[in-house]
């Protein structure tokens, strides 16, 4: 059985056991939020819930880590308007990024 989720009005298929982040990447969607300071795109990075780059709104609840939320049939996914930067530099970048802490 394939699940059907929606993101920005488009259908996104997902398989049982797949995370929301994995389903988005499999559908060719590589970023779904931007950093607060410079507007750089962010999506799946570590894939294990540590980096917080993949925050997304799931069924209207913001701040969900796409890599940890199991995909479900009928989910509505949206941009995370809070632009969380937990554990990162001032622009949400990683230490190795051009916009990260120096």
TrEMBL record:
Q: Which Gene3D superfamilies match?
A: 2Fe-2S iron-sulphur cluster binding domain, sarcosine oxidase, alpha subunit, N-terminal domain
Give GO MF terms, alphabetically: iron-sulfur cluster binding; oxidoreductase activity
Basic and acidic residues bias locations: 79-94
Q: What InterPro entries does this protein map onto?
A: 2Fe-2S-bd_N, 2Fe-2S_ferredoxin-like_sf
Give a yes or no for keyword Oxidoreductase in this entry: yes
Keywords attached to this entry: Oxidoreductase
Offer one Pfam family short name for this entry.
Fer2_4
Region Disordered: start-end pairs: 79-102
List the protein's name: (2Fe-2S)-binding protein
């Amino acid at each position: 059985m394939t699940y059907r989720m929606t993101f920005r009005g488009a259908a996104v298929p997902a398989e049982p056991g797949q995370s929301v982040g994995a389903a988005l990447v499999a559908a060719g969607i590589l970023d779904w939020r931007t950093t607060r300071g410079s507007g750089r795109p962010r999506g799946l990075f570590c894939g294990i819930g540590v980096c917080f780059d993949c925050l997304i709104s799931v069924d209207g609840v913001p701040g969900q880590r796409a890599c940890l939320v199991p995909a479900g049939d009928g989910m509505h996914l949206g941009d995370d308007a809070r632009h969380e930067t937990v554990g990162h530099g001032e622009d949400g970048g990683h230490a190795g990024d051009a916009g990260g802490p120096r």
